[in-house]
Design goal:
The complex is a heterodimer of chains A (about 475) and B (about 150). Chain A is of the alpha/beta class and about 475 residues long. Chain A is about 35% helix and about 15% strand. Chain A has helices at about 15, 30-35, 45-55, 65, 75-80, 85-95, 100-105, 115, 130-140, 165-175, 195-200, 205-220, 235-240, 275-280, 310-320, 340-350, 415-420, 450-455, 460-485, and strands at about 160-165, 180-185, 225, 245-250, 255, 270, 300-305, 325-330, 350-355, 355-365, 370-385, 390-395, 400, 405-410, 410-415, 445-450. In chain A, helix 3 (about 45-55) crosses helix 9 (about 130-140), helix 5 runs antiparallel to helix 6 and helix 14 crosses helix 15. The longest helix of chain A has 26 residues, at about 460-485. Chain A starts with 13 loop residues before the first helix and ends with a helix. By secondary structure, chain B is mainly α. The chains are: A alpha/beta (about 475), B mainly alpha (about 150). The interface between A and B is large, with 43 and 28 residues. The complex binds flavin-adenine dinucleotide.
């Protein structure tokens, strides 16, 4: 389909646009921020946002949209920023993405929209993520966050249960409430937002944003029920047969921590990233003693892994007062899956990077507390399927490192509860739910999307999957009415 | 008696029998585990392992390896330093993969020893070398799968 080019509001001559430097995001001073949990990035000013938007060269065939997993109309919202119509820009984004304040903060834009931005071929790409964040925050402060007063839809009389309140579940709720269905979100934890509240720390994603998003959905009629574990409190069948839900969406995420299976992993002081971050974020350990969740203040904390989770954990450990906090990673920095920005921020905050190192044993004292890690040095071999060079252990390179806290952040798996209680829902050999491109599972009327289907991925992919499922659920519900009429 | 001494006192039939026995033991163990496994994903994984070991057994019996790939793979050693899980019904897929990769590694060493032992007999030496490579290739595949699934950020 040929897209109509948005009307231009850019007053800067094309040639001059390329001379404008990318606007840097104001941020807290690294020394100060490494001792607090306030947000690191402070957001562009309106003036900066307009200048940044004016860097867009308005390509005839814009590639940025293809780089976005949900195809946000990037050229359009950028022109609205040039016009200083910030609410209009937010509205434009929200046509495709219901959580722009979240995505503007945590999406890996450098490997998505910004990677394919044509300005980036010779200069630094347009800071699309920072612009998205700017307009979303502007809308939250100056509108009601949901921007457009949507018309109240005609009630359909049909009920949808959404299990899990992560980005996938919230995206489904947002789309289906607009269709007039009765939508209820069931969440196992005592706060809504999934990884966005229990995993990603406050200094990267303030929780007020999530609370605001949930409040917006509530205002539109979505019901939220917490402390409700589907599969334990009530099964899917019971929801459908006894509570009358016509369809169920499973957005359960991949919250099962993976361990390494090396000796000493059950010593005191060895945490999964999941537990460590949940204690700090959801249980507000970072606000101890106001909140009663004690967290150990380490002399030397090591975090094993190189993804966003590891970066979040190491920066949390540092802020909680660890004298030294180190990343221990088997490969080199080039292969790290974490966002560049997180690696950069971690370094600025004084985190040590021990690359090409792999722990093979944790050693404890007679009280069962971890006191040391036995590690091996690695060297890089041939690239694997993902193109990352493979780490190979170097024989005889063992060394001992004194540590008093370890966080394992090598990956997560899917929680087996739903597949165990519902054998009719097909799972693959890793326990992920098998679903088609629209989220249909092997159980009638049950859909699934996000990390529970794809395995650990990204917020935007989870939301994208949620939106596809929402469309399919809507179709399914319509056909149900059609066939019973 | 270590494997090398054991080989010295065996004739060829006994050696093949020993290898077949080794592969069969693995098939039996994985079959047992598959039948008792609590979830479908583990059952699938065990079945893949059974198919793999059955191919090894057939190769020994026919003295021929089907679809042999020339290039021996690198030993990634991903599971070498991990704890050896005990085979049982409550095993997780992660433990199954570790156990299987470790077994493939040990069997590769056995075939390598046999290849070295028969270094004067080109045909035998090559056959066992190929078997060792096969086992190593399977270890490589299992460890690749392990890395992708159990340490995507590690
Ligand atoms: C520490 C960390 C940092 C990350 N950083 C980034 C980042 O910077 N950028 C990015 O794009 N992605 C990041 N990710 C990945 C991203 O957060 C996930 O891909 C995304 O949250 C998946 O969304 P989801 O809705 O599928 O699941 P989740 O966010 O995991 O939400 C699932 C929800 O379902 C609930 N649930 C599970 N089972 C049940 C049940 N039986 N009954 C009721 N409720 C249930 C859970 O409690 C949870 O709240 C990060 C992940 C982690 C762990």
């Amino acid at each position: 389909m040929i897209r109509e080019k948005p009307q231009s509001f850019n007053t800067v001559a094309l040639k001059e646009r390329l001379t404008i430097p990318r606007q840097s995001m104001p941020e807290q001073d690294p020394f100060i921020r490494s001792t607090n949990f306030f947000e690191v990035n402070l957001g562009l000013t309106p003036e900066q946002a307009v200048i940044e938007a004016q860097r867009c060269i308005e390509c005839k065939k814009p590639t940025c949209m293809d780089g976005c997993p949900v195809n946000i109309k990037i050229p359009d919202f950028i022109q609205l920023i040039c016009k200083k119509d910030f609410l209009g820009a937010a509205e434009k984004i929200m046509e495709d993405n219901s959580l722009p304040a979240v995505c503007g903060r945590v999406c890996p834009q450098e490997t998505q929209c910004e990677e394919v931005c044509l300005v980036g071929k010779r200069f630094e790409p347009v800071a699309i993520g920072r612009l998205e964040r700017f307009v979303a925050d502007y809308a939250m402060e100056n509108g009601n966050g949901s921007v457009k007063e949507t018309q109240i839809p005609q009630p359909s009389g049909q009920k949808v249960a959404i299990v899990g309140s992560g980005p996938a579940g919230l995206a489904v709720a947002s789309d289906l409430i607009k269709e007039g269905h009765e939508v209820t979100v069931f969440e196992a934890l005592h706060e809504f937002g999934g990884v966005l509240v229990y995993g990603i720390p406050e200094f990267r994603l303030p929780k007020t944003i999530l609370r605001q998003e949930v409040a917006n959905l509530e205002a539109k009629g979505v019901k939220f029920i917490k402390n409700f574990i589907v599969g334990r409190t009530m099964t899917i069948q019971e929801l459908m047969e006894e509570e009358g839900y016509d369809s169920v969406f499973l957005g359960l995420g991949a919250g099962l921590p993976r361990f390494m299976n090396i000796p000493g992993e059950n010593l005191n002081g060895v945490y999964s990233a999941n537990e460590f971050l949940t204690r700090s974020n959801l249980m507000r350990g970072y606000e101890f003693p106001e909140w009663d969740t004690p967290l150990y203040r380490a002399k030397h904390a090591i975090i094993v892994g190189g993804g966003n989770t590891a970066m979040d954990a190491v920066r949390t450990a540092k802020r909680l007062g660890a004298e030294k906090a180190s990343i221990v990673y088997r490969r080199s920095e080039e292969e790290m899956p974490a966002r560049n920005e997180e690696i950069h921020h971690a370094k600025e905050e004084g985190v040590e990077f021990l690359n090409l190192v792999n722990p093979i044993e944790f050693i404890g004292d007679d009280q069962g507390n971890v006191v040391a890690a036995k590690c091996l040095r690695m060297e890089l071999g041939e690239p694997d399927d993902s193109g990352r060079r493979r780490p190979i252990p170097m024989e005889g390179s063992e060394f001992i490192m004194v540590v008093d806290m370890v966080v394992i952040a090598v990956g997560n798996g899917s929680n087996p509860l739903i597949s165990q209680t519902n054998p009719e829902i097909e799972t693959n050999k890793w326990g992920n739910i098998v679903a088609d491109a629209d989220g249909r599972t092997s159980m009638d009327a049950v859909f699934a999307g996000g990390d529970i289907v794809s395995g650990g991925a990204t917020v935007i992919l989870a939301m994208g999957a949620g939106r596809k499922s929402a469309a399919a659920i809507n179709e399914y519900l319509k056909s149900k009415v059609g066939s019973s009429a | 008696m270590n494997l090398k001494d054991q080989i010295n006192s065996m004739d060829m039939d006994d050696i093949i029998q020993m290898c077949v026995h080794q592969e069969q033991q693995a098939i039996d163990l994985y079959t047992l585990a598959k039948d008792q496994a609590r979830n479908e994903s583990s059952r699938q994984k065990f079945q893949e392992l059974i198919d793999m070991e059955t191919k090894h057994k057939v190769a020994l019996q026919n003295f021929e390896i089907e679809n042999y790939i020339e290039l021996p793979p690198a030993d990634l050693k991903v599971t070498d330093y991990l704890m050896e899980p005990v085979l049982g019904v409550t095993m997780t897929t992660q433990e199954i993969l570790i156990l299987a990769a470790k077994r493939e590694g040990k069997t590769a060493t056995m075939y390598q020893d046999l290849s070295d032992h028969f270094s004067m007999d080109k045909q035998l030496s090559t056959f066992f070398q190929m078997m060792a490579d096969e086992e190593l290739r399977h270890k490589h595949d299992l460890e690749t799968e392990y890395e992708n699934e159990f340490m995507p950020e590690g």
